TrEMBL record:
Transmembrane intervals: none
Source species: Carassius auratus
SUPFAM superfamilies found in the cross-reference section: Stathmin
Keyword field: Coiled coil, Signal
Protein name as catalogued: Stathmin-3
Gene responsible for this protein: LOC113050190
Location of region: Disordered: 139-165
Biological process terms in GO annotation: microtubule depolymerization; neuron projection development; regulation of microtubule polymerization or depolymerization
GO molecular function, one term: tubulin binding
Family: Belongs to the stathmin family.
Amino acid sequence: MAQYHYLNLFFLNLYLDLTKLLVYQQCRFSISLVLSTFTSSSSSLSLSLHIPSIIPLIIQTTASLLQHFSPLSIHPSSDSTMDSTVSAYSEKLREMSVLSLLCSCLYSQPLPNTFGQFEDMEVKSLDKRASGQAFEVILKSPTEPSPERPQTLALPPQKKEPSLGELQRRLEAAEERRKSQEKQVLKQLADKREREKEVLTKAQEVNNNYSKMTEEKLHHKMELIQENRMARLGALKQRLREKELHAAEVRKNKELHTDLSG
């Protein structure tokens, strides 16, 4: 029901707009034709009418309007701007399809505006025609002015002059720190020397032990050599003594044999 109501409203607005345009142009044909066409078309629409039956009616009504609505019927005294407007409007009606009419009837609510606001500008649509579209770009006001220049930083308060007692305490503390550092340095030097002494002592002990062990080994080796030498000399003397005894026995036997043979 709402769809058919939108169809009636659409045709009513269309015919009223055409009638106003024709009256403004002082057309020679009668306006009763437009009203009779609207009456015949609107009376044929009913609540029980279906969409397929609306299409021939829309075609017939649009054709009848375009047949009488032509640039030739315009009064010759009109200006050229209005002539071009009427011509463009008639051409637009001829090019408009039935599907566009149905969509405009079924969805009569206007589409949301696609032109939005950006961060630093605003875009508005001024005029939209077949030849093009005009826009208006509005720049936003500049940002708020910067705050007032901050005052120069005040100089820090000057330190108070230290008193004599405070200076004395500082000197005493510095002297104590110096003595403590000297003690620490001396202690480090003493520890270092102690470690050096320990290292030297240990190295000396190792050297002494090595020398002692080497000397003992040398003495032991010399003793072995001496013992071996004495043993060889004793064995040599024993062999010489045995040879002498054997030679004396041989001489003695020879003398006995000589005495017995003589």
